[in-house]
Amino acid sequence: MANPLLTDWKPEDPDYWAGKGRGIATRNLWISVPNLLLAFAIWMVWSVVVAKLKLIGFKFTTDQLFWLTALPALSGATLRIFYSFMVPILGGRLWTVLTTLSLAIPAIGIGIAVQHPETPYLAFVILALLCGLGGGNFASSMSNIGFFYPKSQKGNALAINAGFGNLGVSVMQFLVPVVIASSLFAPVFGAGQVTHDKGIEGHLYLQNAGFIWVPFIIAAAVVAWFGMNDISTAKASFKAQSVVFRRKHNWLMCWLYLGTFGSFIGFSAAFPLLSRTLFPDVLVLKIAFLGPLVGAVSRALTGWISDKWGGQNVTQITFCALIFGVLGVLYGVGAFGSAASFPTFFSAFMWLFFWTGVGNASTFQMIPSIVRADMPRLLPKAGPAERLKASEMESAGIVGFTSAFGAFGGVFIPMAFGQSLKDTGNANTALILFLLFYVTCAVLNWAVYARKGSILNGAKSPTTLKAAE
Question: Which CATH number characterizes residue 139's domain?
């Protein structure tokens, strides 16, 4: 194996990038993708497992089940706060291997727990929290890939890494319903569980939902160890990186990313159980994977639009579209007096998933642009090289931290749906709260970033800064 440490990494040098840099960056990106995909699969596997627990005899209330869908997001979001600073401390290659291998802990735990009807609710709470190990990986993965690319291509590279990584939710929601219905793995993973659904007896092999990922986790970690690189210049202590907590744009982007990624992961976690609750006669789990699929693909394929037209402008359109989408869901559940309609409900949610993906890409494109544009004010006496290095480190830190903050949407959204259903018997209250939140995001983005004369649409734009330097 060649030396994995890159000691002379210069992605902003056109000749270096064309001759050597692009190939190395591309290799690291495409090794990162499957590792991140598995992380998302484990993070959200609970959303499908939870929807089946009652069928195999677990006597949990609907409120308890919604709590179980929220807990992986809670632990994942919290872990992201720490994970976001780990790549400059330990190196992206080693950290990727360690975090990927950690996914086997909840995968194996789920496989064991669901086979025993006497497993207490507390054990499922612990397993749900352990699934958050997958959620934490995103912050470090995005921070790591950001170091490999020149600023002109960061938006698209981060969109590819995140978008195809997000695809893990859809892959999981498609694959798990298939494998838990199959006895093919019974000789290895164990016998199935008897189910009783509407008086009809059947069998499920719910342990497959956890065990099926273990071989892929091991393989992905091995490939990362032998194929990825560390960058010697991308090293910094936690103290050096903690400067991002004093940057106002860090906190503003946290709010916006809560609206985009928080919505994506929250809807992904809640959609299967919410749909099954509101429309019990529809076999939702067979098509639930389409929502995360739409969101992941739209993120992966639209990053270039933000690179070309400005993430702040795309983000503004995104929040307007999300407001419209929530109104569509409200109409679909009968909030405006008409009969509830699953086709309308489902179509509106697909619209929401699509725009969360677009917004995920556009907000992450904004972060390095904002940091670069603000560097002359923050470091007025520094030269171009020093500003560039500082902007790279701060951008990576803010990308990681905003990803942590945004992931809390995976907590709030399932909890809001669960509480709304408990208090009123419908999801209307939660949906109205989401709508009002999107309004605040649209106003904030316009006032600070999208209006004429703002830091991204005015004299301090990255284009102007580059010309000045």
Answer: 1.20.1250.20
